[in-house]
């Protein structure tokens, strides 16, 4: 028996056999015909079986007609039809089905599934005017804190405080193996979120024995940190708790002295509650000896969405590395082992995370970076919610709730409007709105500090002695910003032109109107701007100035924020033209003032360079030449271009013509006298 059979390929034989390809085609045709006949026989057999099965069913139905229901006969007929359809659809045989237009169906779209804690939040009301719960009537707040709240003129609890305060106090009253769930709160601006976490923290820590840092409140803005510090200081007046602030307002060395003290070679903490910005917190973690956060019980992230965006210093990583003692971080949100010893030893060292924001991101992927432990969500909704039960209500309740997950909410007392204008007269439109609507206490937001500076100068020139206007931006020193805010709160300043540095959480009392001079670029910016008014149940108005090209983008922002119709506010016809001459004069004064400011700035730079002798001569010479020739490129802004018909020389042409004629006559007369004398 041969193991291998070798077939030789003869090229000459192939070339001498011209009918070889025809024979191959004939053989293929025979195979195809054979397969077709087999399939036809199989199909005929299947149809015969189906016919016999249907006939058998019909005979059985006739035999049982006296006892069977009509529905059973119909079922038998439908079963026979289903069998025929199934056999007909299998044209090719085996288990394959031809996909055609008749059988094609669009796939069902599957909605994204939210985690249970996002899909089933605890609903809190956004109507701040309903002050139904008196502080005196609640039993979960200590008498000492009630007195402090009374001294702060706080008599009622807002909805967010009524929901969050008892929950935090309750979970921390349970025994040590129990680990409280992390809390996320998304509520409108001005709804009392700061007191919602300050009250339970102060009350729970008031019974502490030794002084250690047990509460850390992290904030993104220095001004907001100062505001939170003042609230904690007032609440701690009836206790022995000490509060400290870490921000750029205080020198670093003085903060180190306020944090720790050394006695007999050991470091002891001097504070119980720490309010800090992210950057200064990281500095103290790495540079302050004896500074320890290893006994932390509360970790509060106020303006949490902004905190999550501050990745330049990665403060959470540094805090995590500072606190952990083993391979697993105590800040981790991973569930612990089901061992009583592990729970008893480690559960008490897990800090309770509390996240608060008016625009809290409800994207599970973004929140995953914070490693929350079994989080619980307290949130407001866009429209009025009928049921107050957070988990009940059946499928109808779930459907209504699901439509509002991730929406941004604002107080019910807020009125939102927009005003269309032109780019070259936008400051004049703002002036007209202020005068016609008699707005005396307002905040006006611009997209940059430079724009706020120019606008404040022009607006103050237009208003004159009628109103006092100040500017507030990050370019000013902290003491200057605090002075401006104090003047506004005491009524010495009627309006503040500011950048978005003031839009985050700053609580300014009695702001009647918020004006967005520059259209916001994002819905979060818009929500935080308008949140400076209509706070604590007071009515407020928000107005956005828009040019025609910005209207569609603004409407998209409004829609993204879960809002619908925003009314348009208009100024009186020809009201802007009536002040055109004053406006043009103010613009010219502004340009002169900006040039002088630039010249002073260059002279200071030149003085510093000469004083230090560290600059190159070429740089000094360049500054000197720039000051001498008064060359300041970029000072004129297209936004403030004066309309040709509004320039002051065109507004009073008769007067200007007379002056020019008089000057020309004198000039011609002098020329004539000079020529006669020379002759």
Brief account:
The protein is of the alpha/beta class and 679 residues long.
How does this structure look, described?
The protein has 679 residues and is α/β, with parallel strands linked by helices. It has four domains: 19-89, no CATH class; 123-402, P-loop containing nucleotide triphosphate hydrolases (Rossmann fold); 414-578, 3-Layer(aba) Sandwich (Rossmann fold), CATH 3.40.50; 581-646. Helices cover 46% and strands 12% of the residues. It is built from 25 helices and 19 strands. The strands form four sheets. Strands 1-12-4-11-10-5-9-6 form an eight-stranded parallel sheet, sandwiched between helices. Strands 15-16-14-17-18-13-19 form a seven-stranded parallel sheet. Strands 2-3 form a two-stranded antiparallel ribbon. A hairpin with a 2-residue loop joins strand 7 (260-263) and strand 8 (266-269). Helix 2 packs antiparallel against helix 3 (70-89), helix 6 packs parallel to helix 7 (193-205) and helix 22 (580-612) packs antiparallel against helix 23. The protein starts with 10 loop residues before the first helix and ends with a helix. Residues 68-76, 89-94, 383-406 and 631-656 have low confidence and may be disordered.
The CATH topology label of the largest domain is: Rossmann fold
| Overall tally of domains | 4
**Secondary structure category:** alpha/beta
Number of helices: 25
Mean pLDDT: 77
Ranges with pLDDT <50 over ≥5 residues? Answer: 68-76, 89-94, 383-406, 631-656
In whole angstroms, how far apart are the ends?
A: 141 Å
Number of strands: 19
Percentage of residues in DSSP E strands:
5-15%
- CATH architecture group name of the largest domain: 3-Layer(aba) Sandwich
Main β-sheet, in a few words? 8 strands, parallel
Strands of the biggest beta sheet: in what spatial order? 1-12-4-11-10-5-9-6
Described by the principal axes of the CA atoms, the overall outline is extended
What's the CATH superfamily of the largest domain, by name? Answer: P-loop containing nucleotide triphosphate hydrolases
């Amino acid at each position: 028996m041969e193991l291998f059979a070798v077939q030789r390929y003869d090229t000459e034989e192939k070339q001498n056999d011209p009918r070889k390809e025809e024979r191959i085609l004939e053989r293929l045709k025979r195979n195809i015909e054979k397969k077709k006949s087999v399939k036809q026989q199989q199909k005929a057999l299947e149809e015969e079986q189906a016919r016999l099965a249907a006939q058998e069913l019909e005979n059985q139905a006739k035999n049982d007609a006296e006892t069977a229901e009509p529905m059973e006969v119909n079922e038998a007929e439908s079963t026979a039809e289903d069998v025929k359809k199934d056999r007909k659809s299998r044209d090719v045989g085996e288990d394959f089905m031809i996909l055609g237009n008749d059988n094609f169906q669009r796939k069902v779209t599957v909605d994204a599934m939210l985690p249970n804690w996002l899909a089933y939040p605890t609903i809190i009301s956004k109507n701040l005017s309903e002050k139904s719960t008196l502080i005196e009537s609640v039993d979960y707040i200590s008498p000492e804190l009630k007195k402090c709240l009374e001294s702060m003129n706080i008599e009622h609890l807002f909805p967010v405080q009524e929901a969050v305060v008892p929950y935090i106090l309750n979970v921390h009253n349970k025994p040590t193996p129990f680990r409280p769930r992390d809390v996320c709160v998304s509520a409108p601006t001005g709804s009392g979120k700061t007191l919602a976490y300050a009250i339970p923290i102060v009350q729970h820590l008031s019974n502490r024995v030794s002084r250690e840092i047990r509460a850390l409140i992290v904030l993104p803005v220095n001004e907001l940190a100062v505001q939170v510090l003042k609230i904690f200081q007032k609440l701690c007046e009836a206790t022995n708790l000490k509060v400290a602030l870490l921000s750029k307002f205080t020198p670093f060395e003085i903060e180190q002295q306020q944090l720790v003290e050394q006695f007999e070679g050991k470091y002891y903490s001097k504070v119980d509650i720490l309010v800090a910005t992210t950057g200064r917190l990281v500095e103290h973690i790495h540079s302050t000896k004896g500074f320890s956060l290893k006994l932390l019980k509360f970790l509060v992230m106020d303006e949490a969405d902004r905190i999550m965006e501050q990745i330049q210093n990665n403060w959470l990583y540094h805090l995590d590395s500072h606190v952990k003692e083993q391979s697993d971080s105590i800040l981790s949100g991973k569930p612990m082992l089901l061992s009583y010893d592990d729970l008893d030893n480690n559960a008490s060292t897990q800090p309770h995370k509390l996240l608060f924001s008016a625009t809290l991101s409800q994207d599970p992927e973004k929140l995953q970076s914070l490693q929350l432990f079994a989080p619980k969500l307290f949130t407001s909704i866009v429209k009025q919610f009928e049921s107050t039960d957070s988990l009940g209500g059946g499928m109808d309740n779930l459907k209504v709730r699901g439509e509002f997950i991730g929406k941004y909410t604002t107080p019910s007392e807020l009125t939102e409007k927009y005003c269309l204008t032109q780019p070259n007269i936008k400051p004049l439109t703002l002036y007209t709105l202020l005068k016609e609507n008699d707005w005396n206490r307002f905040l006006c937001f611009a997209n940059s500090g430079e724009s706020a500076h120019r606008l404040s100068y022009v607006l103050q020139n237009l208003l004159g002695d009628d109103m006092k206007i100040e500017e507030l931006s990050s370019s000013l020193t902290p003491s200057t910003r605090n002075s401006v805010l104090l003047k506004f709160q005491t009524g010495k300043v009627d309006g503040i032109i500011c950048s978005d540095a003031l839009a985050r959480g700053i609580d300014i009392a009695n702001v009647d109107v918020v004006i967005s001079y520059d259209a916001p670029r994002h819905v979060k910016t818009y929500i935080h701007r308008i949140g400076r008014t209509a706070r604590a149940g007071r009515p407020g108005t928000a107005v956005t100035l828009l040019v025609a090209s910005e209207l569609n983008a603004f409407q998209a922002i409004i829609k993204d924020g879960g809002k619908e119709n925003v009314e348009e506010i208009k100024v009186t016809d020809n009201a802007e033209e009536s002040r055109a001459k004053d406006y043009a004069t103010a613009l010219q004064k502004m340009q002169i003032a900006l040039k002088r400011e630039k010249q002073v700035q260059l002279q200071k730079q030149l003085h510093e360079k000469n004083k230090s002798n560290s600059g190159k001569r070429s740089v000094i010479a360049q500054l000197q030449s720039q000051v001498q020739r008064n060359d300041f490129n970029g000072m004129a802004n297209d936004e403030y271009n004066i309309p040709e018909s509004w320039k002051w020389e065109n507004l009073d042409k008769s007067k200007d013509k007379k002056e020019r004629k008089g000057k020309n006559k004198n000039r011609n007369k002098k020329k004539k006298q000079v020529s006669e004398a020379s002759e």
